[in-house]
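Hi,

Apologies if this is the wrong queue. I'm a grad student, and the batch job for Uracil-xanthine permease from Streptomyces qinglanensis produced an output file that my downstream script rejects. I'm not sure whether the problem is my script or the file. Here is the sequence I used:
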Amino acid sequence: MSLRNALHPGPDPVAAGADGPPKHPVDDPRPIHRMLLFGIQHVLVMAATPISSVFLVSSTLHLTPALTANLLSAAFVLSGLGSLLQSLGPWGIGARLPFVMLPGGAPLILFLSIAEQHGLRTATGAVLITAVFYFVVLPVFSRLLRFFPTLVIGTMIVIVGVNLVKVGALLVTGRPGSSDFGEPRALLLGLATVGCTAAAYGLLRGTLRQLSVLLGLLAGTGLAALLGRVEPAATGGGALLHAPELMPFGTPQFSLLASLPLLVYSLASMAEATGQTVINSEAVGKEPDARRDAPRTIRGDAVVSLAGGFFGLPLMVTSGENIGIVRITGVRSRFVTVAAGLVLITIGFLAPVARIVNAIPEPVVGGTALVVFGVITVLGVHMLGRSGLDDHTNTFIVAVALALGLLPILVPGVYDHLPPNLRILLESGVAVGAFSAALLHALFHRVPWRTRPAAEAAETAEMPETPESGATTVAGDRSPTR
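Support response: The file is valid. Your script probably expects a header line. Output copied below for reference.
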């Protein structure tokens, strides 16, 4: 089997309705037991994010164990509800794609910064203000989506993928400068997990092959237990049930000035959500329509963030972490992430399950993440390959955008001496790369001094391939549309 065929398994069978047109695989519900297995696989890969986010909040702000447990429960429940919303897409809220939602990343750091400067009640108020701001700005942002063609989205996804690979690598190696950085047993666990995942994918077939990510993670955890890296105390004791508490820090306080960093970030977040919506559409073999689907994704982010703010959480964002799993397994049904959402909600209310998930060592989770996030990077490269890079102008645009976007990712702290508000903008490599690519594309392809034939040729090269043009939407996927 060629590498191309291994990375891009054949299309799922399309279920035909008795009286209607065939269902696309993304809308095809699978047997419940398979949905549950695949959903658990998604959850185990991404569970480290809400856990680490809550523990970072707890350690930074010196929260009590009771408050920490409350936030952890809320993080799982809201992540589950957000995954349901994005996957089912009721009332135009949610993309109807296999997405999960998580706290963490840049919004978490901004939340902590506001909390340290102005208090936790003001930080939760800033989250609520920003969630409402999404709805206010969305109509204007939707009109600007024409400035985000495939070239820009592909550049953004490559930066997202590289950033996520770095996050996964740090789970394996630890932070540079820390006492356990590069600890040999941690490296062994991470690399062994990658190896077990690759072996499962290469040697198994059918459903077991589609569960290769989960099997690799379980094998890595088993090895960690043999090496004494799983603590039994972490999986036992404590209460059976735990429900999140509303407004755990008290009544939110509202300050537009204090909320400014999050408000600025929300613009970058909408651009990132657009890129993730397009790449998720391509991963499931559905023709991307950013103007239709990206606003639905952003509305979902806004609704869940608004709810999460009342439970003391930072902004909730649609995660690109599970897109790699979709591509590896070839299981494109959005009902898989519906199952994942239900599992996350269950974990939020069942305290022992949360403790068991938390017991999986970070190097094992990091090894799994390296594989999954690497696939996301490949998807971005694939998009760039369809963006007319034989045109030297497009090559220059991508080169400059990647350089600017990857700078703060590869050299952390490069902007530490700049004013705080400017630093917030520049430290988001995804936002810098996206806006740089969009600006350069507009300057080189949409300005009056460009000749009309050249501009038209550039736009034609960047149009997403559609089945009507005789090309496949996703390499190795010959289904007509999503």
